[in-house]
Amino acid sequence: MNTIKTDVCVIGAGSGGLTVASGAVQMGAKVVLIEAGKMGGDCLNYGCVPSKTLIHAGRAGMNYAEAMADVQRAITTIAPHDSQERFEKLGCTVIRDTARFEDEDTIIAGDTRIGARRIVIATGSSPMVPPIDGIDSVPYLTNETLFAQRETPEHLIIIGGGPIGIEMAFAHRSFGCEVTVIDGDQALSKEDPDAAKIVLDRLRAEGVTLMEGAKVEAVSAENGVTVQTSKGPVTGSHLLVAAGRKPNLDKLDLDKGNVPRTKTGVDVDGSLRSVSNKKVYAIGDAAGGMQFTHLAGYHGGVIIRSMLFGIPAKAKTAHIPRVTYGSPELAQIGLTEAEARKEHGDKLTVIREDLKSNDRAVTAGITEGFIKLMVHKGRPVGVTLVAPNAGDLIAPWALAMANNMKLSAMSNAVFPYPTLAEINKRAAGSYFSPKLFDSALVKTAVGLVQRWLP
Ligand SMILES: Cc1cc2nc3c(=O)[nH]c(=O)nc-3n(C[C@H](O)[C@H](O)[C@H](O)COP(=O)(O)OP(=O)(O)OC[C@H]3O[C@@H](n4cnc5c(N)ncnc54)[C@H](O)[C@@H]3O)c2cc1C
Ligand SMILES: NC(=O)c1ccc[n+]([C@@H]2O[C@H](COP(=O)([O-])OP(=O)(O)OC[C@H]3O[C@@H](n4cnc5c(N)ncnc54)[C@H](O)[C@@H]3O)[C@@H](O)[C@H]2O)c1
């Protein structure tokens, strides 16, 4: 067995692990990077990149086979950035094998033993397949197999109305597939209900059948695939399971590393360090919180500060955006209205501006969508945006909230006319206009100044 000593051993070459490995090695640390599957992890190979390409290809009018070929094009284009070759050129030792703990500061991967001063668990997550009666008797798809599919599904049944289920429902409908989404609870239940309603109404209007509150009872291979639910049976040609995720921790022998876990991930403190083995960090999907590529990257930055410079750094969530790429897109940063009301009570101001009042929306015939702005003590604490490209439109709020800016920073900015982005400034302006236009004090002051000005 080979033995290597290193400063940092990163397990998992996905969004989080690659951020840590490239940052740490370029700042002078010795880095070993271990990957059991494909370089780039879920986001590149089975997640964000294929799903967003498929959504775009559907809207662009490609057929299913062309769209899946386009998915491969997008992956191949991005892959060199995440490749073993690139990371070796940067100076990392890359091992392609499954990693596990031997003891608190030793990792085994294949025939290599790695003694590490710091260990980063960035192993991501996998589809959680619920223990549904008969599930193993049908050839179901998950995000790991869907993008290898070539023939157009005649009728795709999707179990789960979360972001994966809803995005894939829009995408498949655009190829003319019949689509049924089954959710045991409510679809997009984590989102602002007014915002989710616009997206889900549009999904229904496009012809997708959405069964909410439908408990899945059994699955069988009858006439293709038949799903028995508490609201009746559904028969289709293909089944996609998108019912949530489980962290990839089972192969790590965590107990040998003195690294306890919870149901959702490694048990970490606010600095993403294991609660009992301070040499070990967990980031991204394996850390048990929100699951986004940009969050995994942000986690990477947080722990680099702590690992390389010994600067205490906490991972925060209040400024992390998320987007569901439906039609329209639904973007959220910080607190939803319900969360903000719970936290700030009557000290909260909520501003809502409908997109139809925006001139660019009028020129483009956009009648649906809105921005909802949650303000506490003159600062934004949450924004909900439903609009075409809401994921791009929310960017100024990500800047404002990451830097704890006041709302006046947004109202002072000048946005180009006519753009949808002006809705951001308009919402901020609406917060100040009653203070300016309905104030007796302002009116008196203006009256006095006007009397004395030459
Ligand atoms: C269909 C889908 C669409 C998505 N769309 C978006 C989106 O649009 N925007 C967004 O922000 N997020 C999206 N996500 C979420 C995003 O993909 C994840 O949050 C992100 O990939 C997490 O990064 P990570 O580094 O934690 O894990 P990953 O990227 O999954 O990387 C983990 C890596 O660790 C490896 N590994 C696991 N165990 C071991 C081991 N024992 N030894 C060695 N290697 C190991 C795995 O093979 C994997 O390559 C989507 C997810 C899915 C499934
Ligand atoms: N655009 C994005 O950023 C994006 C896109 C896709 C995924 N993701 C990430 O991946 C994560 C996982 O997505 P997801 O959609 O799989 O999970 P999710 O947990 O967000 O949603 C799963 C849905 O499945 C339902 N469900 C669970 N078990 C069920 C059952 N037995 N029968 C019927 N319904 C059932 C739940 O009620 C829930 O609505 C997301 O939370 C997100 O962090 C992000």
TrEMBL record:
Location of the Pyridine nucleotide-disulphide oxidoreductase dimerisation domain: 320-427
Q: Give a yes or no for keyword NADP in this entry.
A: yes
Q: Which UniProt keywords apply?
A: Disulfide bond, FAD, Flavoprotein, NADP, Oxidoreductase, Redox-active center
Cofactors that this protein relies on: FAD
Q: Which Pfam families match?
A: Pyr_redox_2, Pyr_redox_dim
- Location of the FAD/NAD(P)-binding domain: 7-300
Fetch the InterPro entries from UniProt: FAD/NAD-bd_sf, FAD/NAD-binding_dom, FAD/NAD-linked_Rdtase_dimer_sf, Pyr_nuc-diS_OxRdtase, Pyr_nucl-diS_OxRdtase_dimer, Pyr_OxRdtase_I_AS
What protein family is recorded?
Belongs to the class-I pyridine nucleotide-disulfide oxidoreductase family.
PANTHER family reported for this sequence = MERCURIC REDUCTASE (PTHR43014:SF2)
What name does UniProt use for this protein?
FAD-dependent oxidoreductase
Whose protein is this, by species? Marivivens donghaensis
